[in-house]
Amino acid sequence: MTPEPIGYSADAVDPSRLVVEGHEGADYYALMTEAIHKILLEKQVLAPSDTDRVIAALEAPNVTWGARIVAQAWKDPSYKARLLADGSAAAREMGYAIKEAKLVVVENTSSLHNIIVCTLCSCYPRSLLGQPPWWYISKNYRARTVREPRAVLAEFGVAIPPPMEVRVHDSNADMRYLVLPKAPADAAERRFDDLVRIVTRNMMIGTELVEPYRDRG
Amino acid sequence: MPRFTAGDRVTVLDLGKPGHVRIPWFIRHKTGRIERYCGAYPNPEDLAFGRPGLPAIDLYRVHFPQTELWPDYPGPPGDTLEIEVYDHWLEPAEPLT
Amino acid sequence: MTDQADSGPPYRGYHDIGGLPGGPVACVERPFDDWQKLSEAIRGALEQKNRTVSLDEIRRVFESFGEQLYETLGFYERRAEALTILLTEKEIVTREEVLSRMDAIAAGRGQRVDHAARTVEPL
What we know:
- Helix content of chain A is 40%, strand content 11%.
- Chain A has helices spanning 26-42, 48-59, 63-75, 77-85, 87-93, 126-129, 139-144, 149-155, 192-198, 201-205, and strands spanning 102-107, 112-117, 165-170, 175-180.
- A two-stranded parallel ribbon of chain A has the order 1-4. A two-stranded parallel sheet of chain A has the order 2-3.
- In chain A, α3 (63-75) packs across α4, α3 (63-75) crosses α9 (192-198) and α4 packs across α5 (87-93).
- Chain C has a two-stranded antiparallel sheet with strand order 1-2.
- Chain C is globular and about 50 Å long.
């Protein structure tokens, strides 16, 4: 039995109609979730430990895990080469298992800036960085980033001088993406822990820079 | 043996499938080049209905100039976009001369 | 199947919003609420333990449950609604069972549920 999908139409984009950013239903769905959970426990479809275990796994990943990978790549050129060749294997080297998909790491350079988006839902390397930020799951970010990335970046205070390429990665299927930010000029002299501290979540999505790009134009 | 290798030019099909698909509207009918082969993965169009999605389908990352996707793209002509496309959504395109 | 470049614009689902015009990106932070965690964890546990649900099924449901719901609900709310629909489809729960349990929990807290408006209010 294949339910018939609804809501599909061959309409093209209506430029006069903005995407609708809905935020309704939190109290209602908090209650629905509680009700579903109780019912599934009663029916013994789930045991209490089942969700406890998943919640622990949801809460464990954090931005520092990604920051450690970035700092390691800044410090060690051979690690960086392995990271860019196989992100999942290089993350595992640092002790982090990317569970939901294969990790692809994309490198910012003086001629290329990368930015990550998922237009269809909100795919994100959750098992490394945790839940995505609120703005990442917003429809405005999902809708606009693929078509006007520089305007979106400007809203984050990020300017990319025009000779540089902006490359958008639409995270739509079985890969998850991490931006390797361009290292600070003095990375070689700085301690590993010091470098870890300067890496933010937004830098690893591509909406923040360690240092501004130099205008070569 | 994957059908395409890095550098091959491909056009994204519009399969007109109304179910759950992972190929957004804005890359359909558009031509780009294979950036890399990603491996083979269960078909999400099957997984969406509780089926196993096997045999696994080859997945590629496809590289597009933004100007190919959006004729009115507001940024510099060197800007690009990369996205994953399953093999059955692709057909070979003529190489650039 | 052949390319249909001359046969008009491609199909676009209401969730398929890449390239559509939008407003400013609100660069704000919000916490990951406990109920959102629990909702994600129920799905994750059902997927890992029983292979009962998959993320692609959840996506298929919220991509077909109607544009009005997709537009008005928040991200985790859409996923929570889709989970209930999917568990109903699989006959693991009935919607009536879920809604009446919601009413009972709310009543115990001096609240009432408006299922049409999808709100919870003090009695």
